[in-house]
Amino acid sequence: MLFCQTDNSHQAFKCCVDEKGLEFCYQCETFPCQRLAEWAKESTAYTQALNRLRQMKEELP
Question: What integer pLDDT is reported at residue 14 of this predicted model?
Fold first, then answer.
């Protein structure tokens, strides 16, 4: 399971997942939003997570 489904402590995730009713952040029309991009700069793990979300979006049919 990806972080955006389980980690509700970040406002970027609440924006897409909770408020917009999405399953993954990449489903948002503004992905990657500024909040998510700034969050990804906080650590290598966050950057890798954002890259996984980008890859998931690219693999959509």
Answer: 65
Identify whether the C-beta of residue 16 lies closer than 8 Å to the C-beta of residue 34.
no
Can you read off the two tokens belonging to residue 44? 């290598």
Phi, psi values for residue 53, rounded to 5°: -65, -40
Q: What per-residue confidence (pLDDT) applies to 44?
A: 95
Q: Which of 59, 60, 61, 7 minimizes the C-alpha distance to 36?
A: 7
Six token digits for residue 39: 């969050």
Q: Which two tokens stand for residue 59?
A: 């693999």
Question: Mean pLDDT throughout 29-54?
Answer: 90
d(CA 59, CA 21): 21
Contact 36, 42 (CB under 8 A): no
| 12 closest CA partner among 57, 56, 53, 60 | 53
